[in-house]
Amino acid sequence: MTSYPSEKEKVDTHSTHSIDEKHHFHGAPDGSSIVEGSEGVTEHELATLRHVADRLPYTSWLVVIVEFAERWTYYGTTNIYNNYIQFRLPTGSNNGAVPAAARGSNTVAGALGQGQQKSFALRTFNSFWVYVTPFVGGILADTLWGRYKTIMIFSIVCLIGHIILVASATPASLAHTDVALGLLGLSIVIMGLGAGAIKANVSPMIAEQYTGKLRKETLSSGEVVIKSPTVTIQSMYLWFYAAINLGSCGAISASFLARDNGYWVAFLVPTCIFVLVPFVLLFGKKYYVVTPPRGSILLETFRVIGYALAPRWSINPLKTIRGIRAPDFWDPAKPSSYEEGKVPAKITWDDEFVGEVGRTVNACSVFLFFPVFWLCYSQIDGNLGTVAAGMTLDGTPNDLIQNLNPISIIIMIPIFDRLIYPFLRSRNINFSPIKRIYAGFLVAGLAMVYASVLESYQNKLTPCRGGEFDKQPAACEVDGEHAATPLNVWIVSGPYIMVGMAEIFASITSLEYAFTKAPKRMKSVVMAFSQFQTALSSALNFALVAVNVEQKFVWLFGSFAVTSWIVGTIFFLTFRNLDRREAELNSIGQGDRHGFQGETPDATTGMSKV
């Protein structure tokens, strides 16, 4: 049966039209034709007037609050996992806190004493799991519950996981390392399920709150501008990402809480903050633009791909590749390719739906290059924390430094949104999504070069580098303190800041790209596919566990730099043609049609009755 939304739910029936700023006239030669889907904007006006962002609806800010609280709790726990798992309890501590007398030294907080490689493996599994589970939330939202209900249910699941995490870090648990490790593993699984399902739905839900169309507006200065949905969504995701990173600054307090009060307190504070999530969702329920589940087209999408692929397979891989790249690749999946009465029974779609699947697949293939980008990011998540632990701390928690990444992003986002991007648009410089993502790969590579050079220099300053602490801890400690190089720990800030800039270029753009390129009924699933690339990155990291030791950090960082530049360049050369098809790709599946034969749109809800 088809479920219908309640009267309180608002169904988003507007098309999110994105128009390329370098628009070519398709109607009247003088550009007087009205742009389809706009509020009276002519093609000439679209091509000549300045494009600016529209005002963001307040319901978007309510979604931002949800993301802020969820990210605070995520980063407020995961950012201190490295020390929690890797280092043992400081002398005289039963909860991981550094004794007061040792806080101005190089003594670091710790608890489980499992070493660098086990810490890396557990953290990598956590990252992998969190970015696989978005598929669960995406499919449930698109097919069964809708985004709002899915976020609400999994916020409760995530809260349960946080409570178990707190229990794992109590002195009673830490007295039995196996018990603490078991509870930690269980909490990682439960929290990852909840956080991943939320993550797949919050991103599209924030953009769905904006229902404006392309229109003209006169500013107080007298200038007539175009209020552009494209620019609005770009701005929306910039501020959404700012909320993510503002929330991740919760890890600043977590580092000090762990050092001064122990890990159970450090984990308890984010848990209390997470309680805000269901309350904010309940408060905004009657105000949100709520998209109901529209029924899954995921199975039909795979069937379309299967029909198109079937005649292309060959034992000759070159022939297979040529077949996939052929202009008529999708023809076997189109009903029109068959004689009347001979269309296979499993083909329940029309030609237009096949076209939507084809354009969506082409656009989403952009995300397949992102695992390499996230490999670079993963180094600031843990390995650089290990680098920092061997520097002169002067009482600074080594896992505090990684908060420079979100802080730098928070500072840079208003600069990009208010100054850099508007300046480029005013000069008719089309800094398109593909170019922005490419820039992200280049900057991420530079960050890895910085990290490699720094680690190489550090290794020359002390014999206790290169993992010797794990092998001979007594030889590399003096009065309980970790042996340190004379370099101040803040020197390691460079890669964190540069990766932050790379995220603005690549990661934020990927969120924007996933939303604008997905058909309405697949937005959560396509967003999950975008985020799944981080899980693939974590899987690659699993294969690199053997080289994730300090004596190999120099080559590890350096190889990631070269790989990021090479893959980024291949990415740009492969997809630069998509820049010229922005308007076409942004209109995929945004109309009111549903693409299946035999469906009749319901006049009240805009949904289909099969």
Automatic annotation (TrEMBL):
Q: Name one Pfam family in it.
A: PTR2
UniProt keyword annotation of Transmembrane helix present? yes
Q: Which parts of the sequence are annotated with region: Disordered?
A: 1-39, 589-610
Q: Name one GO molecular function term.
A: transmembrane transporter activity
**Keywords linked to the UniProt accession:** Membrane, Transmembrane, Transmembrane helix
- Localization: Membrane
- UniProt lists compositionally biased (Basic and acidic residues) regions at 1-23
Q: How does it sit in the membrane?
A: Multi-pass membrane protein
Q: Which domain of life is it from?
A: Eukaryota
Entry GO terms, CC: membrane
Show the stretches that span the lipid bilayer.
Answer: 128-145, 152-173, 179-198, 237-257, 263-284, 436-453, 496-515, 527-547, 553-575
InterPro entries xref list: MFS_trans_sf, POT_fam, PTR2_symporter_CS
Q: Biological process GO annotation list?
A: oligopeptide transport
- Coarsely, its chief localization is membrane
Task: Report the sequence similarity comment from the record.
Answer: Belongs to the major facilitator superfamily. Proton-dependent oligopeptide transporter (POT/PTR) (TC 2.A.17) family.
* Protein name from the UniProt record: Peptide transporter PTR2
- Say which species the protein is native to: Hypsizygus marmoreus (White beech mushroom)
Q: Which gene encodes it?
A: PTR2_0
